[in-house]
Amino acid sequence: MSQEEIYTEICNAIVNLDEEKAINLAKKAVKEEIDLLEVIENGYAAGIRRVGELWEEGEFFLPELMKGAQIMQNCMDIIIPHLQKGSERISLGTVVIATIEGDIHSIGKTIVATMLRAYGFEVFDLGADVPAEKIIDIAIEKNADIIGVSALLTTTMIGQKKIIDLLKEKNLADKFKVIFGGAPVTSTWVEECNADGFADNAIEAIQLVKSLLNK
Amino acid sequence: MPIIRPKINLLDTEHKKSIFTEAKSILETQGVFIENQEAKELFNQHEINNKDSRYFIPHDLVDKCLAFVPREITLYDREGNEHIQLKDDEVHFDPGSAAIFILDENTGKIREALSRDFVRFSKVVEHLKFIEAQSTALIYKDVPNVAQDWHRLYIALSNCYKPVVTGTFRKESFSIMRELLLACRLSEDDLAKKPLAIFDACPSPPLKWSDLTTQSLIDAAKSMIPSEFVSMPLAGANAPITLIGSITQHCTECLAGVVIAQLIKSGAPLVWGGSPAVFDMKQGVTPMGAIETMMINIGDIEMGKFLNMPTHAYMGLSDSKVPDSQAGFEAGMGALLAALAGNNMVSGPGMLDFESTQSIEKLIIDNEIVGMVQRFIQGIEDYGSPFAAEIIKDYEETQELLSHPTTLKHFRKELFLPSPIIDRTTRDTWKALGSKSARKRAREAAAKLEKKVPIKPIDESLIKELDKIVNNALK
User: Fold this and answer.
1) Which CATH number applies to B68-378: 1.10.10.200, 1.10.150.530, 3.40.50.300, 3.20.20.480?
2) The pTM is what?
């Protein structure tokens, strides 16, 4: 099998949501010492990009998008430890993501975190009901590029603004890009808070993060 | 009495039993996650096993607690008059609660709500005959953050006499809200005997009772104020995709609530309720107008009835952004199905856009929907035979039946007589009246209703008392 054929097979395994095959191909690539960076870029990443396209085209639905992302993640867990030192594809950037304090709605945030991971970002998902201070502390600790804050309630949206205010207070406003998510979030709110953006869905969130990091 | 009370069922007895048994088994083996310290101490006192805040409730304790739950709740209005009963297959409607936006009927734009919007909203609800209870329907931003829950109860009580469905956003707010309710009653005992409000208690799916909502349930039980479970499994996202699986998860979360409340105070009034939804697999949203959402609701209602509890559901809502045909058919289907299921309290009228937006226009249209629905469940009545023979004979003489004694006697009961919101004019008349849509007619009605003299104007001493409580709380 030529390398091109292997890439196509990997891509198809992801698009067909065939976890067993995708994992076997990852193991095979490691064992046969194929150029793993090429395998990721031309095989797995190509596959997950196609999954995203299929979602945008209306062919795929969220369960398929999520499953594709999870298979991708499981395969990366096999491949990444074997990458040669110095060949750092890898993380397109680091994202710390959470649902803000007082708010327990986590599903949207979880979808975005999973998709970002699948697209090659390093993601620290802190869960729901997380205080602004803690989100910032972890963003500092992980040297994050992006802080993503979700809120579903108007009563908790104020916590999104708190992140921005705290960052200013700590003179960290330029260190992180801050993006918002959640049903009540509007462009007006993002402007009012001086945040860096928001997205309506997980695929848009990926595009937003990529554009903020010029990727 | 109708010949048959029109009803709908999606579950048979065998499946209701299996769901109940499985729900108890989930509570016993997987447990419920409890954050609230008081509830933890309560469970520890009753020697309920736990691990990492997850409490494993034995099935016999569930059975014991269920036996204490009152089968019915009578709600009283602000003045203490009996208003509605949540029992058997009685059906009552209240506006969907806690919307964060309002569809401004004057500009046609969706915007953040202000307190004056909720004042107008409550004044309109006062006059809507078929919206029998009110709710703290809007969250507005022009009060301090800490007052965003209880201030709504103040506005509601000040502007509408009907009983209120409400809830807390902060643990500290319950006592202020109880004080507002007490101002409308002679004593704590009087408030317990004549409930004026129901507090929503919303477990977090799956199987978690948060600190805030557990505290609300506990505080309400102590005062014998009714609580209404709003369990909200999202089928396919944080609950099983199968409708029966989501109904089972809903049942499990509610049973945990029954145990908490009854251990606090046996006989505490509770409503078996919810706001389940299927998860939209494209948009990642929670469609309240989806037929499957309504099917989960009906299953939940059937379980509540099976367990002899008063019932509640979020139905009669729409995900449309404006009162258009989608809003009409989704609200219409939901309201009719809720009534056919014999659901006691239906929260939904007025609501659009996944429970995020309230619309006074839609509320006024929904009032007509509910009027028709209430007529439907009255069914067909047998006034004694012959049913038609003699009346038809009389026609030969008069060539009309409009003035027939039976017509005059029965037409107001046999027919639902809609307001002009429902267009039944001829095309020429409709044109002459300005070719208006239902939405336009509702908008015009809203302007009139908010200015109309209240059915039951509030007593001046009561408004002073409410103002005093609010001023103290805001200090």
Assistant:
1) 3.20.20.480
2) 0.91
CA distance A63 to chain B (A): 7
Task: Compute the distance between CA of residue B297 and CA of residue B312 in angstroms, rounded to an integer.
Answer: 9
Domains along chain A with CATH numbers: 3-82 (1.10.1240.10), 94-212 (3.40.50.280)
pLDDT digits (tens, 9 = 90+) for B238-296: 999 999 999 999 999 999 999 999 999 999 999 999 999 999 998 888 999 999 999 99
ipTM of the complex: 0.78
Q: Hey, is the C-beta of A16 within 8 angstroms of any chain B C-beta? A: no
> What are the pLDDT digits (tens) for A2-36?
889 999 999 999 999 999 999 999 999 999 988 99
Size of interface A-B (CB pairs under 8 A): 38
Is B283 part of the contact surface with chain A (CB cutoff 8 Å)? yes
Strands (E) in B62-117, as ranges, are: 73-76, 82-86, 92-94, 101-103, 110-112
Domain ranges of chain B: 68-378
Contact A149, A175 (CB under 8 A): no
What whole-number distance in Å separates Cα of residue B454 and Cα of residue B461? 17
Mutation for A interface: B33, B102, B112, B207, most A CBs within 10 A: B112
Q: Are B442 and B361 in contact (CB under 8 A)?
A: yes
